[in-house]
Amino acid sequence: MDTAVRFPTTPKAIRARALKLSARMNVEKAFQTIMRNCLDQIEANENGVIKYHDVESLHQMRVGLRRLRSALGMFDEVLSLPMALRQELDWLVSRLGPARDWDVLAGSTLPRITTALDADAALVRVQHAAADQAVALHAVAGAAVASERYQSLIGRLERWLDERGWRAMQLPADKVRLKMRIGDFASGILEKDQQRLLKRGRKLKGADPEARHRLRIAAKKTRYAAEFFAALYPQKTVRPYVKALASLQDELGLMNDASVADRLLRQLSDGKEELKDGTGFLRGYLASHARLGGGTLRKLWKRFVPLRAPG
């Protein structure tokens, strides 16, 4: 009998750990706790991105980055990240984002279509070309995360967080607000996020892809805020709220994937005659199904609208 120990060929992608804020925390301590949670998620997926070019590890690193940037936006009324660090975060996002877009196209969107159809040679060629592009961009993402520039960014973020680097640039009024209990601050953030989301959802019927994208971003930010502050409120209030947001975000995400897929398929066929038939068919298929998807989105929106933000 073979008793050799076997190790997985790829690492397990790391999701965000459960975040537990205390109602006794002040705003500054809560910010540090949230940011540390986001940084832990980013750093935990480094090996999967660098060594294995793992699809899910890259996805979870991007989720960690989105959560971190969302947290910075929530607290920007009382503290601010230096512009140089903001620019470095933008650089990292620009290196990871394209690989994720092509992963979704090659690993999700196209297989879903080809499974529903009898894929001919033209569609198979497109799928292979998309997969090749995803592999190439994973190498770019891995090189970025392995670089000294990335290590410098993470080190500077951690020092700024541990040393409370925002204090040197603060006004007296901001210092007072940092000493507030987190509960009052969180309620204001959740209410503001919900109002922005409701405003963007009012014209959902007939919305174009750009309007749906703005709604998706608002839903994502509202969900992150609700998850960050969930421990401060009764679970019977938070859970249905986050669940409704997640369903809404998922449906908007699928519609956004179709919009991104159209752009990537146009890029893929540019100057490649052998891919034009396949990409043309796929773009038409995605466009026709996008027009049919609005009904599901409106149903999910109607379920969300009656819910109130925790507070």
UniProtKB/TrEMBL annotation:
SMART domains per record: CHAD
Domain CHAD: 24-306
PROSITE patterns: CHAD
Entry protein name: CHAD domain-containing protein
Species of origin: Massilia frigida
